[in-house]
Amino acid sequence: MHDERQRAAVVAYVAATRYPFPNQADWPADYQTIINLPERRQPVETSAGILYPEIVILDGEGRVREGGVVVSSVEATMAKEWAALAPVFDNRTETGVQHFFVYVPEGEEDAARELLRDNNISYAGLRTYRLDGETVVITAVETPAGSKDHR
Question: How confident is residue 5, by pLDDT bands cut at 50, 70 and 90?
């Protein structure tokens, strides 16, 4: 899963099926889902400068609300970027954590969890993904945001 074309397909699938979920009744009508892969379209300003998370959700006034990263592999160097990104997203979750979701290849969830926890990064959900042929399979690993988002 290290091919950028495949990762772009995962990003598109996640954006289309999880922001919002199919038939999600409480998704605000003015929210817009923007993807930054393969083309960078929506920058976000962070304490580490301008970053381009793979998925950015804006409200009707253009404010960043939610978002996520989809990585090909978990690397220790990602901690700085994730720590800068998390506070950009709102914390209007059931438990008050940031609306920041992390998608990693299946089998790398423990490394991602360790990176998030060791660096005190607030996050709404950790997910794995895998490709079965042309089908993308997403698995919810943990959801500190609350049970509503554990899908």
Answer: confident
